[in-house]
Amino acid sequence: xxxxxxxxxxxxxxxxxxxxxxxxxxxxxxxxxxxxxxxxxxxxxxxxxxxxxxxxxxxxxxxxxxxxxxxxxxxxxxxxxxxxxxxxxxxxxxxxxxxxxxxxxxxxxxxxxxxxxxxxxxxxxxxxxxxxxxxxxxxxxxxxxxxxxxxxxxxxxxxxxxxxxxxxxxxxxxxxxxxxxxxxxxxxxxxxxxxxxxxxxxxxxxxxxxxxxxxxxxxxxxxxxxxxxxxxxxxxxxxxxxxxxxxxxxxxxxxxxxxxxxxxxxxxxxxxxxxxxxxxxxxxxxxxxxxxxxxxxxxxxxxxxxxxxxxxxxxxxxxxxxxxxxxxxxxxxxxxxxxxxxxxxxxxxxxxxxxxxxxxxxxxxxxxxxxxxxxxxxxxxxxxxxxxxxxxxxxxxxxxxxxxxxxxxxxxxxxxxxxxxxxxxxxxxxxxxxxxxxxxxxxxxxxxxxxxxxxxxxxxxxxxxx
Length: 466
Hints:
The chain is α/β, with parallel strands linked by helices. It folds into 3 domains: 11-97, Rossmann fold; 106-324, UDP-N-acetylmuramoyl-L-alanine:D-glutamate ligase (3-Layer(aba) Sandwich), CATH 3.40.1190; 334-464, Protein-Tyrosine Phosphatase, Chain A. Helix content is 33%, strand content 21%. The protein has helices at residues 19-30, 42-50, 84-92, 99-106, 130-143, 176-181, 200-203, 206-218, 232-241, 295-311, 316-324, 353-362, 400-405, 417-427, 449-464, and strands at 11-15, 34-38, 68-71, 96-97, 120-125, 148-152, 169-173, 189-192, 224-228, 250-254, 264-269, 272-277, 280-286, 334-339, 342-346, 366-370, 390-396, 411-415, 433-436. The strands form 3 sheets. A 9-stranded mixed beta sheet has the order 6-7-5-8-9-10-11-12-13, with helices on both faces. A 6-stranded mixed beta sheet has the order 14-15-19-16-17-18. α1 (19-30) links the parallel β1 and β2 (34-38). It starts with 10 loop residues before the first strand and ends with a helix.
């Protein structure tokens, strides 16, 4: 595990005892800090206590006795309203941080002076694709026999990482909840996949959401920035980070435009990835042959991962081989099987409208399973062309009828996943794709998108095994 640095003899409060909170508490204790931890749920407190972590109701502490408060990412600290414990710490002048900020202050070790190659940290953020991009970078590095670890919003908590070895590359997926609060953000390479409206209540609108993501680039100043420029926010960020068109510290990434007049760019058109430097093509990869990365949205992920791996010194052919062996992630355009010429795809992670649109654009002749807890902003982006490939939508969720009324394609209200899969499979013809891409959160029927995806997989398994 990673040991927190510079905390010996200090008292740290930890609020929230999920994966990241428990990991941070253990790292702080190993670093010599006194830890007072709390969670509103008794099950989380019991788990922490079983690991020797001292419990203390933080609503009752004297903040004069606390040096820092570490907050888990799911707990609001500003909008829509700060948690009362966080508010008390803020008013008392106690520094508020999270495990990511603490990690960046603690990761480097004295033994690094003996390494031939210093360890590096790659941090990936964005609205959609950051999990796939992070996992793909990690997979390519591992396939090339480079030491690498994956953590953050995917995999392990950051303090559960192993101490870095010579040449290690740590790949972190970071959400806006994590980048917004971290007091230290100093990755070697920072990645911005794309931006679309999400978590707007938590950030008081799109501007706050973009600002939270931007901190990854502005706070520490990465040595290299990989930025998707298919939205104006990415274009603006790339402009701010570079000194001019020839500045190759910024690698621009796109799937909608050819970028052949910049210092360094990677783009994908019609299924082909191209790398350009100073107006000259350096390499090309046929992404159509990569089964684990279907659709333009995954080609964007591939471009970002390619740019990172090239920055780390990997050759194009090595990266291509790594991509070809990438199986994809569960619940993200995950191919489950085919029967009677009908394919079944699980994209339960498509929890917002933009990610659902990208999933719809990746396939043809779609039997679309959608619905759930709608996010702020409505479903306007799903109207018109985005539904052109949809033969029928099968709507789930507690408010399925209301959801269905906002769609322009043929719809049927199913409410439950079991009904939706059964009806879609019964209607499907050879050449169709039954696609789960909800365009909504899962919390009206499930604990999380993984549970929703697992239900879809269970229902599809019934079809495939008949």
